[in-house]
Amino acid sequence: MNFEVDTDAFNNQLDELKEIRCALKMKTTALKDFKDGIFSHMDENDLETFVVGQHVFVKKIRSSCSWSKKKLSECAVDGVVNIDDYIAQNTEEKVVYTSRKRKRG
Questions:
Q1: pTM
Q2: Backbone torsion region of residue 53, taken as left when φ is above 0, otherwise alpha when ψ lies between -120 and 50, otherwise beta
Q3: Largest CB tally within 10 Å, which of 27, 52, 71, 104?
């Protein structure tokens, strides 16, 4: 069974794919710069939502509490953990931006 490969065509396809990936990377970077500008504008003007064309950008504050054995033992007094104190000490708030296509209808 003979198997032949057109190495020139294969290499051309690889080169074309490399160019497409490079162009995609440039466009992704440009889009990230646009989004960063929108997020900065939202922060400066204290906006919760911002609409750009068909996209809605939303600023949310998310809270998270890390639960680990080490942190629980550090918070324990006489082997007992006060959950409310633990949550108050270990909860972190983080600003998160999301974007989604606006629903019309």
A1: 0.63
A2: left
A3: 71
